[in-house]
Amino acid sequence: MDARSDNMFFKRFIALFRKFEYLNHLDMSDNSLNILPENLFINIDHLSELSLSTNLFQSTPSEIISQNDIKVLDLRSNLLPTVDYKTRVWADLMNQKHGLYFLLDGNAFECNCDNLDFIKWIQETKVNLDSRSYKCTLVNGTVITVLDAYENMHDLFSHCRNSIWLMVSSILLGTSCILTMIVLLYNRRWNIAIFFYRIFRKIVEKKYGKKYTYDVFVSYGGDCIPWIKKYFIPKLENEWKLKICVKDRDFYGGESFYDAEAESIENSRHVIFLLTPIFKVSPGLSV
């Protein structure tokens, strides 16, 4: 039977397999298979020997690990570059449960940085393999054995560590840059907000033809003058670059206090009231 990856064939294939509930031995070797249909073994619970040798599998069929009674698995002479982690874990569990013969000779194994865990597993697993010296191909095309790769791992794959460290360093550098940007933006959030505020303000003022002398007018009581001079004014004027109007500095003599205050408020974009005990009884509160 020359089985191909055809949908109609697989549908018939699955329908046929549903009748084999008590199947123990299954030989599907030499059929040019490259995949197994999903749920192929859904009704088969007693499969102990499975032969998939001399096919075209490039990865271990995931349907295999759904079986819990397999004692012999034959995947010789396929195109496997590795045996994936899930299949290795399943093989170790099957071996602990009832012993497992896992036949893998004649595949296209690769000995590279991505396959180091597989190379170690071949030599360290308790699963009964048909060899511990499968042929594998290095990145430069040289063919060696998996055993040679295991015994000379430090010399052959020392560059893998450099790649890992380069990746880790890149991730750390990228993370550091992002965190630095976040911290910078957070520390400068008011400056950024004011920058966009100024742009928006200019657009609005240009549209309505209104110009202001001050950004902020500050109304306050006499009990907070020291705080205003030491903290408030430097914050708004020096750091935020806002032009503010305070009565003790910007009001000139010879004009009515109320008139000066009303005019300053009129010529200010915003008004800030600093509510303190003295402010509550201040005559300027009525403005």
Automatic annotation (TrEMBL):
The keyword Acetylation does not apply. Pfam families: TIR. Residues 212-287 form the TIR domain. Its main location: membrane. Keywords: Membrane, Signal, Transmembrane, Transmembrane helix. GO terms for biological process: signal transduction. Gene3D superfamilies: Ribonuclease Inhibitor (3.80.10.10), Toll/interleukin-1 receptor homology (TIR) domain (3.40.50.10140). It is found in: Membrane. The chain crosses the membrane at residues 164-186. It comes from the Eukaryota. GO terms for molecular function: signaling receptor activity. The keyword Transmembrane applies. It is a single-pass membrane protein. GO terms for cellular component: plasma membrane. PANTHER family: PROTEIN TOLL-RELATED (PTHR24365:SF541), TOLL-LIKE RECEPTOR (PTHR24365). This is TIR domain-containing protein.
